[in-house]
Amino acid sequence: MVVFTEKKALIAYLSNFKAQKKTIGFIPTMGALHRGHLSLIKKAQKKNDLIVVSIFVNPTQFDKKEDLLKYPKTIQNDLKLLESVSCDVLFNPSVEEIYSNNIVSEKFDFDGLEHEMEGEFRTGHFDGVGTIVKTLIEIIEPNKAYFGQKDFQQLQIVKKMVRKYRLNVKIKGCPIFREEDGLAMSSRNVRLTKAQRTAAPFIYKTLKKAYKKFNTENVHSVIEWVENKFKKHPLLNLEYFTIADEKTLKTIKTKESDKKYRAFIAVFAGEIRLIDNIRLKS
Ligand code: PAF
Questions:
Q1: Class of domain 2-174 (CATH, top level)
Q2: 30 lines ligand 1 (CB under 6 A)
Q3: pTM for the whole structure
Q4: 10-residue stretch averages of pLDDT, the chain, 282 residues long
């Protein structure tokens, strides 16, 4: 694997491959890699000649300084994991390399997608995500870029950005990777205490029950049921649970038969914020 910290050198390296008409698959990450990331790499390897992974903890997408400072950094382990799946290129720039001295986001209009759910609770988050994803795509110019569906709203927003800005890349959404007990894999999971880690699978268990209830009950009663479940939980605090249209991400009040819906959840275990979602049958 070749590691680059400077965009100029990376661009020069990739231009050789592009000249040979080789295709590039790109997986942007913030490091603290886990099997979910590796599954994205493996998927990308099936469809592309060269795999580029970026590791960059993007300061502009964190609404809380504390969360940014405590974001896990495990670069030695990340390098081992990337080697183990034969990743070709790692781009691991500094904050200065990406933002120079101006650590601010571009302001985006994602047609309202950015105001729902995560956007409501994490001010400016999607401007930060849009800024870094657009910057990385412009540097790397991949044919395809891969994103996990755990951050489903992020995935929809990136797809919207690619359409709006006519970026020449295909965005691929990949299924959520879970631990054996159902907890969605996340770099933040390593920050959970033992008790919080034991409690955390409750999130997906509740989502699965909500999935079943959605078949027979109305939207309001499913939401109320989930909220009550969390009210009684000693370790997990519900920030939001909502059922939304997959396309518009707007919360729904009643079901319509031709629409695709998903249930979305954000939960705090202490100060660690966990999100998850599940596709519903309409
Ligand atoms: O999903 C993530 O890890 C980040 O939001 C991303 C896409 C790498 C941008 O920093």
A1: alpha beta
A2: yes
A3: 0.97
A4: 98 97 98 98 98 98 96 98 98 98 97 97 97 98 98 98 98 98 97 98 98 97 98 97 97 92 98 97 80
